[in-house]
Structures are given as C-alpha cells and as structure tokens.
Design goal:
The protein is of the alpha/beta class. Helix content is 28%, strand content 23%. It is built from ten helices and 16 strands. The chain has a five-stranded mixed sheet with strand order 2-8-7-5-6, with helices on both faces. The protein has a four-stranded mixed sheet with strand order 9-16-15-14, with helices on both faces. Helix 7 runs parallel beside helix 8. The longest helix is centred in the C-terminal third of the chain and has 23 residues. The structure holds coenzyme A.
Length: 395
Amino acid sequence: MMATLSMSAFSVRAHARSTLNAGARNPVKATMTTRAPRLPATRARGASLVANAAFTPAGAKIAGVGMAVPAQYLTNEDLSELVDTNDEWIRTRTGIGKRHVISGDESLTSLAADASKKALEMAGVDAEDIDLILLSTSSPDDLFGSACTVQAAIGAKGALAVDLTAACSGFVVGVVNGIHFIRGGEYKNVLVIGADVLSRYVDWRDRGTCILFGDGCGAMVLTSTPNPDDCCLLGFDMHSDGTGNHNLTAKFTAEIGAETDGKSKPCAAGEAAPSGRGAFCNIGMNGQEVFKFAVRTVPDTVSKSLDKAGMTSEDIDFLVMHQANQRIIDTAAKRFGLGPEKVVSNIAKYGNTSAGSVPIAMAEAVEEGRIKEGDIVATAGFGAGLTWASAILRW
Ligand code: COA
C-alpha cells in the first residue's frame, strides 16, 4: 500500500509552486451546581438552550481512537535530492526517517473522515449520535474551516462542527474542550480530531523546515458516563504567548492583483489597492528558539497537570507528547524519569504532523496493545502561537 516516492513521480514541485502561492483544581473531585431541572429529553440536539439552561454534570470517558495518513511518503533520501541534507543528519538531529504527504484526491477532510470513522467504530458510536465535532487544525481545506465538510463526509447530521486553531497544541486543547462539554451534561458524544496537512505550506527548498513536517490525522470519540466523578480528564494546563509568535509562522500575504489582470475592483471607494488573491506564506521557523521553548515548557506544563491531578510522574503509564523532535521527547521523558517502555514515539515514521501527531501516536499505541483501559496517559502539545498544553488522561 505504502510506496516510497521517486522525486520525479511525486508532485513536490507542484507543492512548492502551490505553497508559494498559496476550574477546579482536581476535575475528578469537581462539583457543579445544578441550577434548574434538566430540559425535556425530547429537545432536539443542536436546538438553542433557553436562558435558564440546566447543566446536569456527567462523567466522560475515551471511547475510541483512530488515525489516517496519506498513502505516499518522502524518505530522508528523497529529501536529500531536493536540499543539501542527508539521512544521518536528519535522524540524529530529529529522529525522523520519513513523512507522509498528501497527493491526488487526498485532503485534510478525507484524512479526518477516515480517522473519525475508525474512532467511531472502536467506540461503537453511530455518526448520527455525535453532538459536537471539534476539528483542531491549522491547515483546513477552506479558509472558513473544514469541520463541516468532515461532518458531511461521515454523516454526523446532528452535530455542531467547528474548527479550532491552536497549532500543534490543538488536539490537547480540543480534548480538554470536548470533555468540558460532556462534563456540563449537555453533550453525550463528542468527536475531537487533530489534523494537519502542513506539506501545503512547506518550502521544499528550506532544509531547516522541509525535513520536519508530514501530513496526518487522528481522532478521538469522547462519551458521557452517568457518574460525574468518573472522568477521564484528571488534570490539565494550557497556555499561549503571542510575544513569541514570530518564531513559527505561515503568514497571510495579499498577492495584489494576481490573476486579475488589473481588472479587479478596488477594496473600497477611494482606495488604490485592487482586490487580490490571498495566500499564506511558507512556514518560517527559528528552529533553535522553538527547540528551547519546547524543552522549557513541556516539562513545566506536564508537572502542573500532574499536580492538579494530585499525581506524580511515578503515576504515568505512558507519555504521549507532540512528535516534533525525538530529542525534545527524550528531554521530557528524562525529566520525569520515564524509560522508553513508557514513552510513545512514532516520529521516525511520520515526522511532525502538527495537530495530528498526538492522536496518531495515541491511536497507534492503542492498536499495538500498549495503552489499555485504566492506564494513566500524560499528553502534551506545543507549537505555533506560541501555545502549549498538557492533560492527564485516564484511559
Ligand atoms: N541537513 C543538514 N544540515 C542542516 C540541516 C539539514 N536539514 N538543517 C540545518 N543544517 C545545518 C545548519 O546549517 C547548521 O550548519 P552550520 O553549523 O554550518 O551553520 C547546522 O546544521 C546546525 O544547525 P542548527 O539549526 O543549529 O541545528 P539544530 O540542532 O538546532 O537542529 C532543528 C535544527 C530544526 C532540527 C531543531 O532546531 C529543531 O528541531 N527545533 C525545533 C523545531 C520544531 O520542533 N518545530 C515545530 C514545533 S511544533
């Protein structure tokens, strides 16, 4: 199924062309006040809540996970034909051996739909019973978001579907959000997806970034449980720092007048600039600064989440971090005294899939029989924004 690509066969040049244009301290113990009786069970999903809405707290559990990556991939040897690099350098500095890249009919929506169907199947939840879809992504197929096209692709007719952008922290932020909707008692089934196709924004001439990123998607189904004390989210911690934004960007740029032959309308009366075609620049990154940011913030945020959960690193069964660089993963694992048997790493196979990396790693670890029911999983994401977030989950 998976085939390595010959650079002539693969559309890296096309890519390059297009991209150039292109509350409570311990939630387990948290109590919530019921302010009014529950709404009648006959109320249609998605209908507006009345002002005096009732929130009957519920518990939440992880019911299913799934993943999907593009069929085609680029090895380090493939990249060494594009830029001045080599397999040994990439593996030593990053741990990456290959990365999958979308081609043909594949899209962010198709990957997200594939991963979601697998997660729903594992959960035994019908798509029509999903109340909410949170799609964490920085690279939607449409500027207005892709959650709704994923919703349509999987047939989740009753769901509200929205995008959430928090870069590589997006999936962790999405899971924390999704669990809170369930904890409030209003939603029973929430689908959280982490998906990115950053190959669209990679500059395939820049050896500092093109070696890192790959495309991929993971999904998780969260469902409610009757006992509010039975919650899979034991502690979380989330942050952003926009003063560091310049360290990792893919900025909007207006190509004034492009493809319009100067016949486009002005932006507004009296303004000289014609309407142009918008595009996003290639990914720009200060690798060393991002590296330092990651090794500083990840141990700190995981420690805070553990503290909120009333736990220590000895309670961690598995560390599932954002897969950005093996050296960053190793630094965090060492800080918590975790051996390789407790650390989930698949960066060698997929590179950095941004919002997709944490759920892909989780889905693989579950499929391989490593993560099992009852395990305590420490997870953390970090990246553009800058953003960083962690959560302690009970599987
Ligand atoms: N192949 C070969 N040599 C490369 C190279 C490549 N792909 N990329 C950079 N180099 C060279 C540099 O030019 C430099 O050469 P010089 O010493 O002659 O000037 C040397 O290798 C060291 O470069 P440096 O940038 O210091 O490497 P590094 O050890 O910091 O590794 C990254 C670079 C990008 C792998 C690393 O900084 C990193 O992973 N940062 C975090 C990025 C990240 O995680 N981003 C996403 C967050 S969500």
